[in-house]
Amino acid sequence: xxxxxxxxxxxxxxxxQERVDQQTIITFLSHNADALERTNTIAHVTxxxxxxxxxxxxxxxxxxxxxxxxxxxxxxxxxxxxxxxxALKETMEETGLTRLTFYSKDIFMLxxxxxxxxxxxxxxxxxxLHLNITYLxxxxxQERLVHAEEEHQxxxxxAIKDVLKMVKExxxxxxYQKAFAKIMLIKEHRS
Length: 191
What we know:
Layout: H1 2-10, H2 16-31, E1 43-52, E2 58-64, E3 69-71, E4 73-76, H3 83-95, E5 100-102, E6 109-115, E7 118-120, E8 123-125, E9 128-139, E10 152-159, H4 160-163, H5 173-190
Parallel strand pairs: 1-9
Antiparallel strand pairs: 1-2, 1-4, 2-3, 2-10, 5-9, 6-9, 7-8
């Protein structure tokens, strides 16, 4: 857990929302030894990825079974404090992509995300928070996409400029908008 907290402290947020969420996540991890496990039913760490093509104009989204919406890739850390490992593992499992590279080993975004109660595998999951760490991954657009049927109904490349039309979770739209704005800044600095 100390390595994860150190990794979080190295992140340099540019937005007030991320400064607040960074401190919230660090404080929660410092006081909850089980914050990496789903057994902490108040909040737990998750790792997500924004997967883009090398041109950074297309993104992979999956249609999530629980949320009935297109969205990013990721999952629960389930005890693993190595978020880089979780990012790659979850992305490979959920998309079938294997030729993945980190744009940077640095955290791309931080968010505390409210998750409403739902059923998972027929069991009730109470309202809780995801203490989410996101990385930006680059993938080969020619590699075949697959999806894990227990998680998603489909997996697809979308033009970044169009994908928000496919998102049916209002609470996630600002998070994706933030991600795409950061990607635009990266593209501007590269050109």
